[in-house]
From TrEMBL:
Leader peptide range in chain numbering: 1-17
Biased composition (Low complexity): 30-55
Plastid recorded as keyword: no
Chain intervals for the UniProt region annotation (Disordered): 23-55
InterPro entries membership: Thioredoxin-like_sf, Thioredoxin_domain
Listed name of the protein: Thioredoxin-like chloroplastic
Pfam families: Thioredoxin (PF00085)
Family classification: Belongs to the thioredoxin family.
Keywords: Signal
Record domain Thioredoxin: where: 69-190
Single Gene Ontology BP annotation: cell redox homeostasis
Domain of life where this protein originates: Eukaryota
Amino acid sequence: MSTLSVSAALLVVPAAGTEVIKRQQQAGKPAACPRRPTRARLAAPRPQSPSSVNNAVSVPSRFRNAFAQKPWWRQPRPSNMTDVNSVQQLVDELAASASAEQLVIVEFYATWCQGCKALFPHMSELAAQRPDIKLLLIEGEENKALSRKLEVSGLPTVLLFCGSEGRVEQMQLPASKFDVLLAAVDRWSAPRCSLGPAPPLPGFERVKPRQLTTTA
């Protein structure tokens, strides 16, 4: 087909449209305006249901339901898992555990720390399975002086205290290395004879246990 015939074919459509409008005007009908092409409406996104807690490690089933309802650091925990908010409280807890020959695990954490969040349900499960040990949780941001004195340089950090021997181990503990803590617990929870009270807390030697302090 030649260029001229193509151009003529392209002009047929507007001419035909004009002819239809003229016929409608002659018949006394209002000229119909050509419809604009309609755009396909975008489907509104479906509301997504709240997703379940997604951690790098599996969450023990006994804590999973509560874990999805409250902030992770406010979850229900066994009675031998306690928050510590001051140096004096930590000294008191260590002294009481030393007199009872009880192994103490101290964990430094932060509410924004994803590694701490992943570790929490495993620590809760450990406390539930081992009522003979004590777990103390310390929020590192709110106890910076204590963190510095105990040389806590990363989170989560776990310290083990064993009676009169004081601090026996310290480690940064991602949830993927939880077996390292379990091995340490087995190593230090063996029966021992405590020959004295818990030693002073490093950096806070002047802080004495309140239950052991005598008044004149």
